[in-house]
Write a structure and sequence with these properties.
Blueprint lengths: L5 E4 L15 H14 L3 E5 L5 H10 L8 E7 L11 H7 L5 E7 L2 H7 L4 H18 L2 E7 L1 H7 L1 H13 L4 E6 L6 H12 L6 E5 L6 H10 L4 E4 L13 H11 L7 H4 L2 H12 L16 E2 L2 H9 L17 E2 L7 H10 L9 H16 L7 H10 L4 H5 L3 E10 L8 E10 L2 E9 L2 H16 L9 E9 L10 E8 L4 E8 L2 H26 L1
Parallel strand pairs: 1-2, 1-8, 2-3, 3-4, 4-5, 5-6, 6-7, 7-8, 9-10
Antiparallel strand pairs: 11-12, 12-13, 14-15, 15-16
Length: 533
C-alpha cells in the first residue's frame, strides 16, 4: 500500500544542529542504516557543500545500498546574481550521489531584503533557477519554503509567489516551514487552507518546537492535506528542537489511521529512539511520550488498580504497539495493587491478603519516609520483597555484613588521595577478614568485597559487575554537612542492568548499602538462572 504521508527524517542534518549533539561520520552512517531498516521514506544526510564531515558522509554512502529510504542532500538556492550552474552549493548537491535534493529558499520578505540584501524579484529568480537546475541533474527535488508561516503573515502575496516559482520550475514537493517555531495550530490550518487552493504541487510540513507545538502543527498540516512530514528522532534540533517523529509517527498511525509505517516498524519505535540517543551519547528522556521509560509508568494506587483491570483506563494506547511496556512504580503512594503487579513483573509470588504483602507495603512506606527511592532501584526493591520471606537467607545462602572500616589519606608522594577499606563478612558460617586499596572509599570497599566473595560463590559472575552510574542526592540540605543523602547505583554485567539504593547521614554508609545490594542482587539472579538450567 502506498503511504498516505511520507516520513522525511532530518536527524542527521537539522537534528545534528542541536546543542551537545555531535555525530561522527560513522555514527551518521549507522543512523542512516537504522532509519532505512525502520522504514522512513527519506533520510536527509546533511549539507555536502558546507563541511568536510558531510562531504565524507555522502562519499561513504555511495557504497551503502538503502533498501527503502531515499537519501536526500540538503542545500540552499543559488546566490544572488550568480548562475545556478556556477553555484558551488548547487553543484555539490548535484555531485553528492544522493538521488534527492532538498533546497531551501527565502519566503519572508524581511529575510530577502535584510538578510540576503537582494530584491524580491531576484529572490524569485533564485528559487526558480535553482529548482530547474537540480531537476535536470537529480531524480527528485524538494523545496523547503523557509519561514513560510512568518512570511505569509507578513506578506501573503509574496510568500505564495515564492511557492509558485518553485512549482513552475518543477519541484516535486513544496514544504512549508515554521522555521522559528512560533506558529499556532489554528494558524497553520488556516494558512494551509488558503495556500492549498492556489498551488497544485503536493506539499509537506517542517516544524520547529520553540512554542512546544511542532508535533501539533505537523498533525494540523496533515489534517489539511500535507503528504510529507519532516522531523527528527527524539525531536533533536537547533534551539528547542524539531518536530519529534517518535510522537508524530504513532499519532499518525494509531490515532489518525494513516499508514505511514508498517506495524512491525512501529513496534521498533522505542528501539529506534534509544539507538539514536546512544550514538548521540545523550541520556534517554524518560518522560518522552510513547517511547520514554515513564510513558506507561503508574505510581498512584488507584491508577495501578484500574489499569490492572482495564488498561485503557490510564493508557491511551497499548504500550507494545510502540515497543514499550507498562511499568508499575513503587513508592509511598503505592497501594497493594502496585506491590502485587510489581511482584508479578519481577517473577515473585505474593498473595493478595497475605501478611507478607502487608509487611512489604509497610516497609516500603517506612523506608521512603526515611528518604529511600525505589523507582530507579528495582534491584533493592526485589531484595526487599524477598527479605520479607523467612526462607530467603537459607534458600540463597547470601552473605551477612558484619563490619567495615575505610581510611583515606593524602600522601606527599601521590598526586591523589588513596583509600584503604577493611571488610569483615560472614558467609555460610565462615568469617572472612580482608582489605583492599582503591582510588576512593567506595572503590576500595568494592575491591575488598570482591576479594573474598568469589571464593564462596564461584562461577556466579561477580567479576563481570561494572559500576555504570553513581548518583548522590542530598535529602536534607538545611542540615549542611550533617544532611541525609541518598545514593543510587546502577550496575551491569554486559547483559543486564539493575539499580540499588542506600540512605544515610554518612555518604559512605549509604554507598555501602547500595553496593552490597548490587552484589547480592547479582548473586540472586545467577542463582535463579542456575536453578532453571
Amino acid at each position: 500500500m502506498k503511504p498516505t504521508v511520507l516520513i522525511y527524517d532530518t536527524t542527521l542534518r537539522d537534528g545534528a544542529q542541536a546543542e551537545d549533539l555531535n555525530f561522527s561520520v560513522e555514527d551518521k552512517i549507522r543512523v542512516a542504516r537504522k532509519l532505512d531498516e525502520f522504514g522512513v521514506h527519506y533520510i536527509e544526510g546533511g549539507w555536502p557543500g558546507s563541511n568536510p564531515r558531510d562531504v565524507e558522509f555522502f562519499r561513504e554512502m555511495r557504497r551503502v545500498k538503502l533498501k527503502r529510504a531515499k537519501l536526500a542532500a540538503f542545500g540552499s538556492t543559488r546566490r544572488a546574481r550568480l548562475k545556478a550552474s556556477e553555484d558551488p552549493s548547487l553543484k555539490s548537491l548535484a555531485t553528492s550521489g544522493a538521488p534527492v535534493a532538498t533546497i531551501f529558499g527565502k519566503t519572508w520578505d524581511l529575510h530577502v531584503l535584510k538578510a540576503l540584501k537582494t530584491t524580491l524579484n531576484e529572490n524569485l529568480a533564485m528559487i526558480e533557477d535553482s529548482v530547474a537546475f537540480l531537476k535536470e541533474q537529480m531524480d527528485e527535488v524538494i523545496y523547503d519554503a523557509e519561514h513560510f508561516f512568518d512570511g505569509y503573515k507578513a506578506n501573503p502575496d509574496y510568500a505564495i509567489e515564492t511557492l509558485l516559482a518553485a512549482e513552475a520550475a518543477g519541484a516535486d514537493c513544496l514544504v512549508l516551514c515554521d522555521t522559528n517555531g512560533g506558529a499556532l495550530p489554528h494558524e497553520v490550518e488556516e494558512i494551509i487552507v488558503r495556500v492549498s487552493s492556489i498551488i497544485g504541487t503536493p506539499f509537506g510540513i517542517h516544524a520547529h518546537n520553540d512554542g512546544e507545538l511542532a508535533v501539533a502543527n505537523s498533525l494540523a498540516a496533515v489534517r489539511r492535506g500535507a503528504v510529507m512530514v519532516h522531523g527528527t528522532i527524539n525531536g533533536y534540533g537547533e534551539r528547542c528542537g524539531n518536530a519529534n517523529l517518535c510522537a508524530i509517527i504513532p499519532d499518525l498511525k494509531i490515532k489518525m489511521g494513516i499508514d505511514c509505517v508498517t506495524d512491525a516498524s512501529l513496534r521498533r519505535l522505542r528501539e529506534m529512539s534509544r539507538y539514536v540517543d546512544e550514538l548521540a551519547n545523550l541520556p534517554h528522556r524518560k518522560w518522552s511520550p510513547f517511547v520514554g521509560d515513564s510513558a506507561f509508568a503508574h505510581k498512584g494506587g488507584v491508577h495501578v488498580d484500574a489499569v490492572s483491570k482495564i488498561p485503557r483506563t490510564y493508557e491511551h494506547i497499548i504500550p507494545e504497539q510502540v515497543g514499550n511496556r507498562r511499568r508499575i512504580l513503587i513508592s509511598d503512594l503505592a497501594g497493594k495493587s502496585n506491590i502485587l503487579q510489581k511482584a508479578a513483573e519481577l517473577g515473585l509470588t505474593v498473595k493478595k491478603g497475605s501478611p507478607e504483602l502487608a509487611e512489604i507495603l509497610k516497609k516500603i512506606k517506612q523506608l521512603e519516609n526515611e528518604g529511600y527511592e525505589f523507582e530507579g532501584a528495582e534491584g533493592s526493591l526485589e531484595l526487599l520483597m524477598l527479605r520479607a520471606r523467612h526462607s530467603y537467607q537459607s534458600v540463597f545462602a547470601m552473605f551477612d555484613r558484619i563490619d567495615y572500616r575505610v581510611l583515606t589519606e593524602k600522601r606527599k608522594v601521590d598526586p591523589h588521595p588513596v583509600s584503604e577499606a577493611t571488610v569483615t563478612v560472614e558467609v555460610g558460617g565462615q568469617v572472612e577478614h580482608t582489605a583492599a586499596w582503591g582510588n576512593g572509599p567506595i572503590n576500595a570497599l568494592d575491591k575488598a568485597l570482591r576479594k573474598v566473595l568469589p571464593k564462596y560463590f564461584p562461577g556466579r559472575g561477580l567479576d563481570t559487575i561494572r559500576l555504570l552510574d553513581y548518583k548522590v542526592r542530598v535529602l536534607t540540605a538545611a542540615e549542611g554537612t550533617a544532611a541525609r543523602v541518598r545514593v543510587l547505583i546502577e550496575s551491569g554485567d554486559g547483559k543486564s542492568k539493575w539499580g540499588t539504593v542506600g540512605v544515610s547521614e554518612n555518604v559512605i554508609e549509604a554507598s555501602w548499602q547500595a553496593l552490597v545490594d548490587s552484589i547480592e542482587y547479582k548473586l540472586l539472579r545467577t542463582a535463579k538462572k542456575g536453578r532453571k538450567a
